[in-house]
Amino acid sequence: MLQDDRQSLLLVSTSEGLPQIVYWGPPIAADEVEVIARATQRDVTGGMLDRNPDLSICPEESASFPGQPGLLARNPQGKPLRPRFRFTEDWFQGTSLSLTYRDEVLGLTYWSEFGLDSATGMVTARAYLEAEELTVVDWFAAPVFPVSEAGTEMIDFAGRWCGEMRTQRVPWSAGIRSREGRTGRTGHENLPLIYLPEAGATNTQGRAEAFHYGWSGGHRMVAEELPDGRRQVQFGHTFQSESAARRRFETATLFACRSDYGLNGCAVVFQRYLRDRVVPWPNPARPRPVHYNCWEAVYFGHSMERLGDIATRAADLGAERFVLDDGWFGRRDNDTSSLGDWWIDRRKWPDGLGPLITHVKKLGMTFGIWFEPEMVNPDSELYRNHRDWALGRTDQVLGRGQMVLDMGREEVRNYLFEAMSGILSEHDIEYVKWDHNRVLPQPDASQVRGTYALIDKLRAAHPEVEFESCASGGGRIDFGILGRMHRIWLSDSNDALERLRIQHEASLLLPLAVSGSHVGPRHSHTSGRVHDIRFRAWVAAQRHMGFEMDPAELTVKEAEVLRDAIAWWKENRDWMTKADILRLDSSDPALVAEAQVAHGGERFVVFAGQAAASSQILPRPLRLAGLEPGARYRVSLRNAADSLPNLSRGSPALKEGPLELSGQYLMGQGVCLPWSFPEHMWVLEGRRI
Ligand code: DGJ
pTM of the predicted model, to two decimals? Predict the structure, then answer.
């Protein structure tokens, strides 16, 4: 049993076979273990076997398990291997557990590792398989969890370019709900995350379980209701993505958490665990710097004159890290050429990048640069010299005019390491935006291992450099990549309305610390919509803030608003970076709202985004979350002065100034916000008094 003050995870084996998780919930006493193990046994009736096959951590076909098995393997000639694992040894220390099993006849060893992180509440689980003979593995699930039978729906995630994080509520029913990413990367359309709320659970109340698979090569998820009523969730790499026969296999880590106070309980576990345990911060104490990124300002049109001027303006507005995006290398005048040619384009930068970097540093900013290492354009020196380094057929359909390099090959990784490490060594660069703009010709786990190896080598050589994971926006968001990187480019959409929604859903997995969000141009380049600078600025201020328009487009008034929001963000980022993001149960579907509550609970900020016009005339009271019922808070609207429209004609108290209210009132009754136009954000600050 794994146990701490918050929860117990009880694994029981009735014979010498693989164990099953028979209990996962609030702590149980040691002397209850035996009786609970017996109490969970179910009856036997007609129409089934004489014993209910175990829903073990790797359900076995050989045990007549009536659902998806945890392992589908065969020998290289195609003969299925149906192991029957028997206990070999266990190892148990504190909150870590490792269990080893063997099938002597087939020469297979299975072991799994479980961990329980008491500070955050996360359970981690990973499985390994070793074979004496070369073996082909089509499907290998991370340790399998039986899940609650008290829920009616599951929440999983779809999405697309500029429209990431689309939650879908799907009813449980007999059989399998399967999600599978076959694009070779995590994918906009297949976030490896599922929430399983029990009936009646909301953001703030009720029970829920949630699972995330930390792998960047595409995953397969099976949520199955068995004929006997039990339910299981399996996560693993995409089916058949291990293309070669091997002797050793391992799953990625499965991250599992549960909550007694709504979806937020799980969201907070993911947020904290990612920030405090997964991301390898070079310097955790360093405040997240305000980004300026030049992509939507200049695209491929680089010149010292233009970018020097932009850098001056960006610094004046409050930027702290200047990022030179795509377009600085090879002969990259558009997106059809030069990926792979990682040397500075002397036509655009006759004196190299030195003068720009010196200018940026003089302005008090640090310098970051864009790469898309795993890709190659057919129109590049690299491809002309090494056609065989590209994955897939030569007549394949290109994606954004490019092909994917075979990261499984050492010479490819060595080439990329030398090229990138050279640029990083020769310049004062402290951040890399690592992009990945096309899907793979086929899913391939060795591609991911190769990419991870390259990143790890670069990080070891340049430990002070921070990396951002971008894949046409949010195409590679998972704890596997975030075990190596420090920021996520959540979406290519800088449209504040779309971002409001994306950020809201993304907080089910991601904390502010890693979630990049930029104020885009007035006229959104990806949606065509025009949003007021106040809305754009406050939406970006919800997460790791930056901006990426040409600052010259800002009117004096717009620049003032942006400067003010950036200054506010800098004043608050230290505690917000460590805060929990709690989604609020808004009784108005037009209002997308969250509270960010400081680690010690002494302060909070609520972002209440009016995403559309409400159906009713007036705003409904908004209930807060995460406060102490007995404490009193002083709450005030940060942005009333410049946000009140003429059509807000009444006198809700918050319009007039701060209020002192109890946590119980704020969470039970809620606050009355002033009326606002759609596409507007209220920022409500609170302090415990
Ligand atoms: C896609 C990214 O998501 C953008 O932010 C930008 O970096 C472009 N690629 C550059 O090609």
Answer: 0.98
